[in-house]
Amino acid sequence: MEVVVCKTKEEASKLAASIITKAVKANPKTVLGLATGSTPVLMYDEMARAVREEGVSYREVRSWNLDEYVGLAPTHEQSYRYFMNENLFKKIDIDLANTHVLNGLAEDPAAECAAYEKQIKDAGGIDIQVLGIGSDGHIAFNEPGTSLSSRTSVVYLTPSTVKDNARLFFGGNEAEVPTRALSMGVGTICEAKKIVLLAFGANKADAVKGMVEGGISQFCTASALQMHGDAWVFCDEAAAAKLALKDYYAWRSATKLAL
Ligand code: F6R
């Protein structure tokens, strides 16, 4: 796992976006795995800037998102489909037909999840998977106690995630946050060829510590990334604050990025 410690989230977002921009320039048919939440917003802005100013094109890119709340229609303002349309897809030249978000209204959620896995496989797998991390160490909606080999399925949010997401996206109203979601599994995520995880702010410091320097455990599902051969963690100083080897990671990653 390569940990890139930046002074600010702006700097980290630019660096992470440059990995995606470079990949799309090199291979216009890149397959992306995308995340929602507050964390990737600046990175998505930077990707959109590269489309406007550097002529990068997403016309042939295909994407699969990590997760979606059960019970929310794609038009619901808190749905992850709506989030993606507003925060990225409308700002780049991607064909909406090439973008995939799990259907939170699927009558048969298990069939929806199985079909999603098959779509990703048929596309040749995810080239670059974007991730955020929950304050409890989750990736996608794989909460503590989820098997590290889990596949896309219906999952149950912990009270702490409901609280975090209410604060950020539901005007603080916990009662409005769905408690179930459809989510890619940890096993599904770990099959991506490259992983780019972003973590910002002091409330992510414990989760980052667990992910990078804790043991591999289903109680911090992000720790599964320790087994991945090409996982990059971009964080700001606050999120990296509890890492014992913070300075070493910063030096090592700066050296590798300069190559
Ligand atoms: C979002 C997702 C979640 C978030 C995580 C952090 O698609 O899968 O794992 O990445 O909950 O959320 P923020 O970025 O809002 O702190």
Structure characterization notes:
- By secondary structure, the protein is an alpha/beta fold.
- It has one domain: Rossmann fold (3-Layer(aba) Sandwich), CATH 3.40.50.1360.
- 37% of the residues lie in helices and 16% in strands.
- The strands form two sheets. It has a seven-stranded parallel β-sheet with strand order 1-10-9-6-2-3-5, sandwiched between helices. The chain has a three-stranded antiparallel β-sheet with strand order 4-8-7.
- The chain is globular and about 50 Å long.
- It starts with a strand and ends with a helix.
- 44% of the residues are buried.
- The site of fructose -6-phosphate (F6R) has 15 residues, from loops.
Q: Count of helices?
A: 9
Radius of gyration: 17 Å
**Which CATH-level-2 architecture?**
3-Layer(aba) Sandwich
State which percent range the strand residues make up.
15-25%
Q: Kindly name the structural category.
A: alpha/beta
Percent range for helical residues?
Answer: 25-40%
SSE run: EHEHEEHEHEEHEHEHEHH
